[in-house]
Amino acid sequence: MKLDERHLVQLAAVVQAGGVTEGAAVLGLSQPAISRTLAQLEKRLGEPLFVRGRRPLAPTPLGKALAEHGQIILSASRAASETIDSFRRGTSGVVRVGGSPFFMDGLISRMIAGFQDRYPDVSIEQSYGYLSDLRASLQAGRIDVAVCPVDVLDEGSGLEFREILPGRNVVACSSTHPLLMKRKPTSCDLLEYAWIAPPPGSPLLADLRSILHSLGVAEIKIRFSGGSLASVLNYMTASNALTVLPHSVVFAFRKGGQITALPINIPHPDRSLGLLRLTAAPRIPAVDTFANHVADAFADLGQLIKRHEQAIVWGA
Amino acid sequence: MKLDERHLVQLAAVVQAGGVTEGAAVLGLSQPAISRTLAQLEKRLGEPLFVRGRRPLAPTPLGKALAEHGQIILSASRAASETIDSFRRGTSGVVRVGGSPFFMDGLISRMIAGFQDRYPDVSIEQSYGYLSDLRASLQAGRIDVAVCPVDVLDEGSGLEFREILPGRNVVACSSTHPLLMKRKPTSCDLLEYAWIAPPPGSPLLADLRSILHSLGVAEIKIRFSGGSLASVLNYMTASNALTVLPHSVVFAFRKGGQITALPINIPHPDRSLGLLRLTAAPRIPAVDTFANHVADAFADLGQLIKRHEQAIVWGA
DNA sequence: CAGCTTCATAACAATTTGTTATATTAAATC
DNA sequence: GATTTAATATAACAAATTGTTATGAAGCTG
Predict the structure, then answer these.
(1) What's domain A94-166+271-311's superfamily in CATH?
(2) Looking at the complex, does the CB of residue B9 fall below 8 Å from at least one CB of chain A?
(3) 3-state DSSP assignment of residue A98
(4) For position B71, what pLDDT does the model report?
(5) Is omega for the bond preceding B56 within 30 degrees of 0, making it cis?
């Protein structure tokens, strides 16, 4: 026999509160409303739910059993309410974030940890991709926000762009690299060593080409390619290979003492790391919270880098 | 924010079924009904629950989260329905049974085990008492059924009596008792040994007195009293003490080989073991099921005793 | 692009829900 | 044991909700 969820909830409230009047108060309803519900329930069931003509009100075994189900429903309903409230506050929900692999692995993943330290009820679903994929994912509603280097001129197409860090690359190497002995490495020196290529399709790969061009270097020895950041760092640590990496990523890993940047100036890409969101997308508070957290974290990082550079001067 | 349980259920059905139409079918409703509910929910929340303009219908993270709560509600509701159906079939519920201690401990408790082997979803709450207490408990709705010896003439007072075994007592003793050596023990022999008194207030105690009277015995040595059946049996096993017990109880424990009955005839009490229920009480199917089970079990027991007596003749 | 399926909207009838006012009934009190 | 008090049941009514059918709009499929 099918019964109304609302009725079960009312029954549960009455049983738990120990009286019709009190139960009504718990639910914020009038006593006659509950009284009628109970009468109707008993009529439909053909079984009493309470021992009649006796106070305090005592449920029959059946009444008690049904009230337990009602209690579950009431709890679930309250949990749903809490879900909504917390969703609105941006302290719960799901944030689906996509981004370019090196930034995600090198910076964002740490920031996510810090974020969830503050907002443990927001779960993060991470995915990888470059600008065109990410744009498509945003538009298809597969992700809520993207973290990605974007050409400064690139704009429009319904995407909202929020810059969080100016583009700046460095030539990275193991912190025991022989070239670090030299005061001013030349372009020729760079040709001496093997290179790690950034992932195919990444802006870094394009940057690498333009760097080589600006240094007047024709070709380099690519020894390793296709690896994610962890592979690149490991490889670099255990070899004298060079690669081009975002300044911020190398900076973030300076604590490990394994890698560093060569003191050589290379041109800045006309590109900034930023947060991308769909302009037309519904505002999800948790995504706002997350975006703000990431932006703040990058602002802090920017400050840190600035202070660090006052001590150590990179390049010439 | 408070939301309607019904709406959450409908949301859950849609998410689980993967479409409005399918969800409506699951709940036995029309598609527009669900469609309107969802529209209303989204309007009240100010947040989309589904990714619009896209098929197959995909819930947003919020929609999915709320649907999970709805699923819980739906399950609880179905469980409640099942509780009712099963209650009506008499295969679930609670049976509160009261009875005289020796019968409960000696016979009924075993029958409850057999009962629950067949009906595992019926739980039994057992309590003890003699006729007057039990009658009061029945009338107060504290128990659903009583198992108790009742004077054959005693009747009325809104109680329905169902006889399940004619009263018959025996003098019980350890199975190694010296009197068992004698072919025909006399009343004087009975005076030689210590006696265990049945619990105060029990019909057995009254029976004991009338037995002594009929045997022309004035007084006996009471050595032990106030014990429950387990104590009485243990005491008897470890001594040569005698007591008066229902024939059926001694019979039920014959398998243990520890106790038996003396071959001496004592008068039957004008009393029968029976099931008592309130005539006016609402019919609880599980109680019916239980009462029938107990009655059947006693019928079987009666047959067993009869066959057993054709082999072994008790008393003279 | 036609055809099919699925979802959204409109309009309306029926039921349900909640309210206040009042009668009953069980417990408490003297 | 009569009387008072607190709690529950009932009645009457207004408002909101729910469900229905009919129909329009929007995506997918071939």
Answers:
(1) Periplasmic binding protein-like II (3.40.190.10)
(2) yes
(3) strand
(4) 93
(5) yes
Looking at the predicted structure, is the pLDDT value of residue B124 above 90?
no
- Placement of tokens 């259920």 in the chain: B9
The highest-level CATH class for domain B5-89 is mainly alpha
Q: Which helix (H) or strand (E) holds A164?
A: strand A159-166
Cβ-nearest to A61 among B76, B84, B94: B94
Fold for B169-261, please state it. Answer: D-Maltodextrin-Binding Protein; domain 2 (3.40.190)
Assess contact for A184 and A263: CB atoms under 8 A: yes
- Give the pair of three-digit tokens for residue B237: 């096993």
Q: Which helix or strand (DSSP H or E) is residue B225 part of? A: strand B221-225
Across all strands, nucleotide nearest B33 (CA–C1'): D19
Six-digit token pair at B276?
């008592």
Distance from CA of A77 to the nearest CA of B (A): 6
In B, which residues are within 8 Å of A45 by CB distance?
Answer: 84
Burial class (CB in 10 A: 0-12, 13-18, 19+), A235: middle
pLDDT of residue B123: 85
pLDDT tens for B158-181 read: 788 999 999 889 999 999 999 998
Contacting residues for B193 by C-beta, under 8 A, at least 6 apart: B173, B179, B221, B240, B241, B242
